[in-house]
Amino acid sequence: MKKTDYLPGTSLRLLQRDDMFRLNSDTVALSTFVKVRKTDRILDIGTNNGVLLLSCLLQGGKEGVGIDLFVEAIELAEENARLNHIVNAKFTVSNLADYLDQPFDLIVCNPPYFKESTSDLQRNSFRWAARYETSLPMEMLTQHSFRLLKEKGRLCLVHRADRIVELISYLSKQHLTVKRIRFIHHTIAQPAVGVLIEVMKNGADGCIVEAPYIIKKGESA
Q1: Is 119 helix (H, G, I), strand (E, B) or coil?
Q2: CA nearest to 10, candidates 57, 67, 78, 73
Q3: Could you give the angle at which helices 25-33 and 51-58 cross, rounded to 10 degrees?
Q4: Which pLDDT belongs to residue 22?
Q5: Could you tell me which residues come within 8 angstroms of residue 138 by beta carbon, excluding any fewer than 6 positions away?
Q6: Helix 138-148 × helix 164-173 angle, to 10°
Q7: Is residue 48 a contact partner of residue 21, using CB atoms and an 8 Å limit?
Q8: Dihedral, CA atoms, 143, 148, 153, 156, nearest 10 degrees?
Q9: What is the pLDDT of residues 3-14, one digit of tens each?
Q10: pTM for the whole thing?
């Protein structure tokens, strides 16, 4: 079954399937964190329903591509592009390691957060791929982001705060320099649950730690 939702703070309408990964607070946080330039050519890794790519293009990106493992996700993303009259988005079924294209100015990704598990989610391949990094481990994400970025191109992603040391280690090995960080909290008095990171391919040293993102009441974590 499909339901229509909106990306908070935007006019972006989204059709979402009950059996697939759905818009959550991390998606919302990343969409507000990404800074898009008018000339940006954008890649969305694991696009699912297309929300991040379409949000970026509404901010003024030149053109964009979303890739996903599942035909059903690509069909839903294409439907959402038509629903919002966005014509400069293209979607394709592909594994990141096999994807070939011209270099991008900006890559966005809301990757799976957890290492392999024997969870009951194995019964649902859509949610399994969105949650567990069997098909998109950190090493693969960072390695191929470097490959697909232009020189000084940027990667923006969201991840679990408790994996930040591991994540930065993988990014550094691929010469992806951390330029901006913003932590995600349920309340300012609680420890961070997530982290937003912008990195630059072969960027100079120097990082801005921005004010925290506080999950608003009504957002699902």
Answers
A1: coil
A2: 57
A3: 30
A4: 78
A5: 111, 166, 167, 170
A6: 40
A7: yes
A8: -60
A9: 888 899 899 999
A10: 0.92
